[in-house]
Design a protein that fits this description.
The protein has about 260 residues and is α/β, with parallel strands linked by helices. The chain has ten helices and ten strands.
Length: about 260
């Protein structure tokens, strides 16, 4: 089988011992019925919540404990191009095969679910999730069809102020919601920006402050908002804008609610 970076992997049988280094993919593996096969996860793998008490924590997404992973004797390690560095992936490959996903679009996400179904012999479960996501996706496209395009900026960090840029899953979901990301044209996937230039660089209608990875509060909202002309500042659920896997299914209902509030 070939992963989303084009690396070919050979398995005689479906891998039985899985280490997952991506929170959203850990949740997907659980939802595909692979809880018993999961042996190692990151400290950020918070869904479902009980996994942190029952599985070995092997570090974070950017800093992993290689000795701990090796001791688990995994058959496969699940990584992601954005979440885990190339250096980490290369070192992990000394332990066992490393499957790397690369998710930018909804279609990429559906491909990952299909791949996991094939890889872990969970084809029926994967098809069910794909069908549910596809149905909700098409329903949301109808819902959003007559909504006007609005300009937006999506903040993920403060001091330095960082936003979601092009070639990111967040940007794809913004576009799906008819939000024109003013920083889509900036270089880098998560560029640093200067607040005083926000009007010159697009003057958004909405400023979205993500619930993760930075804990934005009212003070941040006021500080950022005063550099805009008339933008409405909205706190949004970062998981539902940035997590792929099975959580995408919950995102569509959340987006409908978001539009009804703004």
């Amino acid at each position: 089988m070939i992963d989303q970076l084009g690396t070919e992997h050979f398995f005689k049988t479906a891998p039985k011992r899985i280490v997952s280094l991506v929170p959203s993919q850990t949740e997907l593996l659980f939802d595909l019925g692979l809880e018993d096969s999961l042996v190692g996860i990151t400290k950020f793998c918070v869904h479902p919540v009980h996994l942190k008490a029952t599985k070995t924590i092997v570090g974070g997404t950017k800093t992993v404990k290689f000795d701990k992973i090796k001791a688990l004797q995994p058959d496969i390690i699940i990584c992601n191009k954005e979440e885990n560095t190339k250096e980490i992936v290369e070192e992990l490959a000394q332990i066992c095969p490393v499957w790397v996903t690369n998710i930018v679009t909804i279609e990429d996400n559906l491909q990952m679910i299909h791949d996991f179904g094939q890889l872990f012999n969970k084809r029926t479960e994967a098809q069910k999730w794909s069908d549910k996501i596809n149905f909700a996706y098409q329903d949301f496209q109808q819902f959003i069809n007559d909504k006007p395009m609005k300009k937006a900026a999506y903040f993920i960090w403060a001091k330095p102020h960082m936003v979601a840029g092009n070639n990111t899953f967040i940007n794809e979901l913004l576009k799906l919601n008819h939000f024109d990301n003013i920083y889509e044209v900036k270089e880098g996937r998560y560029p640093e920006i200067e607040l005083k230039k926000i009007r010159l660089e697009g003057d958004p209608d909405y400023v979205f402050l993500s619930s993760e990875p930075f804990p934005f509060n009212d003070e941040h909202a006021f500080e950022i908002g005063r550099f805009t002309h008339h933008a409405k500042t909205v706190f949004v659920d970062g998981e539902l804008f940035s997590w792929y896997g099975s959580r995408v299914l919950k995102a569509f209902d959340y987006f409908k609610l978001l539009h009804s509030k703004i």
